């Protein structure tokens, strides 16, 4: 894995903001127009569009335009690189904890002698 994986960095950046995560949560229920995504945020439309741009740049959403209505849809497979990285990290740490557990058990056994 490259030391600086741009795709992974973009995903973490996009998901770091609670407004963007709320938008993705809404989009997990189905596609929605921008106005519907903007309503619960209380943000102005340009700010909402910037959030959507970050999500789109990370590949987490796709947008389409029909007349004056822009509709957003989630792209769930975009999370795969993040899930893969997290699974790798989990395996690394579980292995380290297993080795630590083995070491502690060995030390405890030696102290009993």
UniProtKB/TrEMBL annotation:
Domain HTH arsR-type per the UniProt entry, residue ranges: 1-94
Signal peptide region: none
CDD domains listed in its UniProt record: HTH_ARSR (cd00090)
SMART domains: HTH_ARSR
Pfam families noted in UniProt: HTH_20
Cross-referenced PROSITE patterns: HTH_ARSR_2
InterPro entries recorded: ArsR-like_HTH, HTH_ArsR_DNA-bd_dom, WH-like_DNA-bd_sf, WH_DNA-bd_sf
Coiled-coil region(s): none
Gene3D superfamilies with a match to the protein in the record: Winged helix-like DNA-binding domain superfamily/Winged helix DNA-binding domain
Name of this protein: Metalloregulator ArsR/SmtB family transcription factor
Organism encoding this protein: Hoeflea ulvae
């Amino acid at each position: 894995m490259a030391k600086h994986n741009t795709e992974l960095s973009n995903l973490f950046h996009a998901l770091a903001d609670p407004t963007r995560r709320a938008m993705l949560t809404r989009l997990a229920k189905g596609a929605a127009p921008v106005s519907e995504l903007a309503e619960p945020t209380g943000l102005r439309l340009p700010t909402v569009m910037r959030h959507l741009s970050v999500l789109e740049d990370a590949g987490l959403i796709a947008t389409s335009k029909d007349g004056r209505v822009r509709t957003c849809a989630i792209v769930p497979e975009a999370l795969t690189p993040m899930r893969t990285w997290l699974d790798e990290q989990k395996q690394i740490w579980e292995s380290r904890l297993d080795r630590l557990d083995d070491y502690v058990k060995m030390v405890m056994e030696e102290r009993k002698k």
